[in-house]
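Data card: per-record layout.
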Amino acid sequence: MNMLERWRQWLEETHSPRFELLRHFFARFFDSDLVSTPGQWRVVASGAAAVVFSFWLLFTQTYYHKYLELTKLDNPAPYRLAQVADALFLICFSMAAIGLLTSLQWSSLFPGLRDYMALAGLPVRPKQIFLAKFAALSLYCGLFIAAITVLPSVVLPAVMSGRHAGPALVTLLALLLSSSMAAWFSFLSLVSLQGLLLNLLPVGWFSRFSLWVQGLLFALILTSLPLLFSIPSLSRSMNLRPDWVLYAPPFWFLGLHQVITGNHEPAAQRLAALALQSVFAAAASSALTYLWSYLRHRVRVLEAPSDVDKQNDQRWFSQQASRLLANPRELAVFSFIGKTLVRSRTHRLLFTGFLAVAVALVLDGFISLALNPGRLGFLSPSPKLWRAAISAPLAFSLFGLAGYTYLFRLPVELRANWVFQLNETGNRGILMAGVERFLLCWAVAPVAMLTLPLEVHLLGLGPGVAVSLLCLMPSLVLMELLLFRLARIPFTSSYLPGRRPVVDTVVLYSVCVAVYVTIFGATVLASMRAPLAAVCLFLILAVIWWRIRVARLEDRGLGKLEFEELPEVLVQTLGIERD
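The structure for this 579-residue chain is written out next.
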């Protein structure tokens, strides 16, 4: 205990400028502008860690039973191929996980204007700032890489033990080195990419182009997750040697894994050499881009002009909104939501994540259809195409509406809520009508219009229009249900994350996907067999939507809007007040 107390006291003391800069930048990676109460993200982090631990526990049980059955076979070939497939899965998982983390921290990879302004009054040099930033970034990602690679590298050799298995220590080292180096390659490559964009693009272009690159990376990684989790089932294909593996980085590190475990084939040695060369090249390029940025980026950041493009986007949004809404208070809420989303990089990235999950669900259906092709016709002979087509508008409406309502809870302009508080008395219905109009214009209508050509192309004109109308009604019902619970102006209320455990959130979204996309999609598919059934389903959904809407409008005038989210009280009372 004395040693621990000494360590804490030592950390609380002030040390050299390099150490304090390292401490400053390292702590900044755990900060968030979305939380108004310090320490709340620890609850979310612990919940996320519990989800990851449960995920690996489930995989451990699955792997144990799989390798127990493979060990019983006299032929060791299936066992060895399964080992290769699982090693490739761990490599790809490590690259995807660190890629997600790097894309989330995309704007913090290099020192920015905020860093220079915060440290301008301190006796530190730009060289010290850059070195501390790079060291803090490397330490942060190194800890994350260790967290996602050490546990599976220890667990997998334990469950792979058997008469066909090699030395457990060799297997552990092969998994740990290959997955860790793959993750480092992914991280350093993304750092180099941003360094090149930072120095090659004009100053006025970098902010917008970098945002698109960040969103694209985030979406691509999320949409690749269904393919990632299908890798263990491709064990029979692990004995193939296609030429294109030379251009696929995960296979470079798979070759490194094979060489460490004793495979001395020329193809494996060539891939292992590519893996080592790629890590060295990524490390060198990231160091060079940091050096390049040190020489010229500070001046570029400080002399960067104001973001005129965002101002133009906000002006265009206001012009279009004024044409749609006549009530000034309703227009104020509508425009406030749109302008805030234009300004906030974090909110747009989170919404991209919601849409990427929807894209992943839709692609999963079409990929399974491509792997098991059949005749593409009107319910003949297989409804797989219909299921995939119907899932598109349902998945996008579910995660689009859920994404917006979640973003509305995250504060951006807490200081602006006094404007809405002054106008809240007697105007709750009008203010919330602006939120409803925004969801209609930027969630429900876009999904219906963008997926209609897909439905018509895949299913034909008549069936495609019918499916689009049937999928439009549940999105309206879902919007009414989400607005029923919403009693706040978006972005103007405090936020306490972690009030619902992460596990509960994952289970809730899984149930919503099962009910809204899978079960209702099957209902739409069944109703399309008879025109009368489709009409009845549409009328039933219309009645449900109208009843919920009437109830919500009646309730909208009651109560007050919320502008502050408070933690749960420790002692619950009966609400009895004394006179």
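Known properties of this structure: The chain is about 75% helix and 0% strand. The mean pLDDT is 80.

See the next section for split statistics.
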